[in-house]
Protein 1
Amino acid sequence: MLKLLEEVNEENFGAVLDCGHLNAAKEIIPLSIEKLGEKIMYVHASDNDGRDNYHFAPGKGTIDWDGVFQALKKHKFNGYIAIDVGGEEVKNRLNEEVLEAKNFLEKLFEKYGF
């Protein structure tokens, strides 16, 4: 990803930070943010157990959301954050899961001044 971003090197070409996928791949998300820096244009916010690619509401898995938001703030992130929940695990309670995600993320927005 970094090589591609460097090769294209255009202001309107950036990265999507998919927190759930990175966590399931055992990536350290704040470190990924450090590497991608201001090239992050969009964030997918979902959580999981760090093993399987579930799409739970943020805060219901093992992601260090404080670390994620601290790193995003450090790099002056001003893009969009999308709630990315769904799948078989939550399909019967999708509305509740989205509401929980919204409430969780709003607290982090307030805490970190977004």
Protein 2
Amino acid sequence: MDFTESYLSRCSNVGLACRVGDCESLRRLLEGGAPADVRDNRGWYPVHEAAYGLHADCINLLIRHASIDVNLRAHDGSPALLLICQSSSRFPAVVEAATALLDAGADPNLGSLDEMPPLIAAIKVRNSLLVELLLARGADPKITWYNGWTALHEAAAVGDDATVATLIAMNVDLFAIDDDHLTALYVACQEGRTLCVQLMLKAAGDRAAELANMTSTDGGSCVYVAAQDGYDKCIELLVAIGADVNLTVSPVWAGPNDCQDGGVHVVATASQKNFHRCLRLIMPHVDLDILARSELDPLAVAAAAGSSESIEILLEGGLPVDRRTFAPTNLLIISFLRPIFQRPYYSALREAVRKGQEEPALLLMDAGAPLTYASDCYSPFLFTFRNRIPVGILRAFLERNVDLNLICQGSRCQVPDALLAVLGSENRHQLVTLLKCGLKPNLQYWCSCRNTGGYSLLHEVKNLDYVGECSDLMAVLVEFWSSSCYIPRCCTEMSEVLSGKFKHLDGIRSLQELCRLRIRENVRPSELLDDRWMESIDCLPPKLRQFLCYHTYVGVL
């Protein structure tokens, strides 16, 4: 049955007069003997209609002429007084109508079937005058709604500091919890009700820290819920009374076998959303050992979110830049990518690069974050080749002389990880930049002759949909290959791919090419970038300068 929709055919004449507030018609109907106890389809009596419309005169007429029971309840259990208390406008009229019912004996503690009492309904709409009236007429300040929710909880939730002060003066229990173990202080911190927090902490006196450290069923504390939405004023009050900032929250993804002493630290939550003012207040009180055991690395979540200010605060606070965080399982089809992109851990720098957060990446690099890893942890550098990653991040790695030719443990072939990462992406326009900065193709390990288990990188690359013409790719790699011979002669696999692809090498003698490569091998990537190494070399003929810098090379990618 729909208790929210009213049908005219089910409403009595007395009820209709009360609905529109027509006192004269109501008086005549009552004097003529019309009944005042006829219910409509919702179970509303005429007194409900008068109460809902805030028609105090109609209420008084019903009381005088019909001797009605003002505590009659509708189908949903709502008495007339509750309907008045739920009104969010015309507060003077609300108080007048409520006074009429209370004078006639309305029960100030009678709620609906969902246990909503009039007092909490009045607090919910922030009608402090009505709250005072109800309390003066016998409303129980300790009454609860469903789930153990008290009047103080509701006042804290809506930020009604006047009602909070009134309830505190009536000695309500500050330590009362609902079924989720939430205190009213917790609720006030969650909603950022600074003055309410101040009032309750002051009222708690010597037990203020104890109150602040009471946790919800998931381990959440007042400090945590205040920080997760950036309520720094609440944090300031909590820290001042000695609230524990190291209480962790059980994450929503936690299962029965997850680490019980881990949890999510408030520092990680504040860092993720870049609430740096909260961090400034919290960090001096953080136990770094507890933080190290928590589920999330604050630097990693801050890096992923681009929270540069938070990263600076965390670094100042002594957080290590090389912390490893457990990574979800990642299954890859391309076999040569598994050793480099299927690892159990990741770092904060990897998160910054993966999300394209340039400023956080630079901050972490400057703080000494490892640029590459040979095993276990993802190499941050290898994520610079993804689509939509700012080129400035790649340049930052090169300027810091990242090891371009690192080969990780477990690699299927002795080819640098950086080259494999580029081959595994659709974004290879940076390949020539890497080659110019010293990346070695190691073509002698592309065929099946020298790799364990007869693995052929060339065969797998040829079968990738996005590689395009494999012979064009190999011709570019040959250009930068520093071996004594251009094509490995162990088998015909490479020569068959490169057949007829050497026109761009005409006129360049092998000795010239090898000399150029040998010279460039002794120059660091940061100096090879943008040909910076040539700036200190004078008196070179222009053609030789162009040759040494590959300016005469025309790529085929």
Protein 3
Amino acid sequence: MLTRQKELHPDKFSSKGENEVALARELSGRINDAFAVLMDPLRRAEYILSTHALATIETDSTADPELLGEILEAREELESATSVEAVETLRQVNSSRVQAAIESIKEAFGSDPPNLAGARILAVKLKYWQGLEEAAKDWTPKL
């Protein structure tokens, strides 16, 4: 990635003309976007699923009711938290959930043949847990 980024950096094309600079900017941006997708487990799963013509998980309404119950319970716990310590405990528990979902997604994609339906369900789960993670990061004590 870094090698390709160096080769296509727009500054290397500044003496070549405006068209070449614009193309280098475009390609450099695409490399950055691709790298961001590869580095984010959820975005990577969404991309792989999209290459198999599966609907995006953003509109998935088939989430497991048990999972939704867990998410609601965790959200309520976060909303009722009164201390940084309580939120940190919740974040640690949730971090384990996120890691477990990531590992399960890897296994689903790595099976032969890949378990795309399972990966899709797990990606939805990961999305919910990452949403809780973001909410916990943004948590502030109620005054």
Protein 4
Amino acid sequence: MVKFIHTADVHLGREFDQFDERGEERREDIRLTFRRIAGLAVEKGIDLFLISGDLFNSPNPSKKDLEFVFETFRMLCDNNVVIFIIPGNHDYSIPNGIWDREFNSLGENLHIFTSPKFETIDLEHFKVSVVGCAYNRNQSNFRLLEKPGLKISHQNSILLFHGSYEYPNQEYRDQPFSLEELKRLPFNYIALGHYHRHLGIFSEEKKACFYPGAPEGLNLDERNAGKRYVILGEISDQGEVNITIEEVQRKMAYRELTNDPEKVKQYVSDHTGMENLGLFTSTC
């Protein structure tokens, strides 16, 4: 059996211009939540830590965020957690970029998929294959999951992918894919990233596919409001998949203010700094 935790779209280093001087407080919230997810992995005895793109908000994150992630990864590696990362559309891979140079000293417990083509890493100890590819800005409209050309050694397998699940009658450009394309894939678990809201595509006896959503709300809109999650999963030696979700965000407040626009403005100003990011509405 292999146990995993799945997160994505952390967006470390996000600017939060709407919060003015409190933007750094919000960035620290995100760091603390990511550290909490790492702690949860150790606490639960997780084997694989999956990050499906956009760990950072930029391909050139700050020294502070790089050092923070390095220390977090080192803690995970020291606890025998194997980390898998794919770059997303925000922290995309560039020549001699962070994914090539910053984390090499962490050794064989860290795997970063920097190629836009699918690569496979076989974990003999767990009898599982992990497949991933980096987000490709130059071919973002390609349907990579239509004919992926996969090479998988083990019966049980996991895919990391950063792209857009297609809803009916809508068009998407960021590595789009359909439900039919997902269903044809041979993986026991498909670890998606890109959508900031938690979304379970399907969960069956031997196949499951999820977006965990961003672990912290990133804007004051519906996609970023509400509870935030990570995915905890197990794949048995026989291929059965067991999925649970764990709430991870810091405390969140919701309040509806009516009739007085100035009250709405003042409340948002007072409460969007540290532990209170939600969706505020007014009926005035």
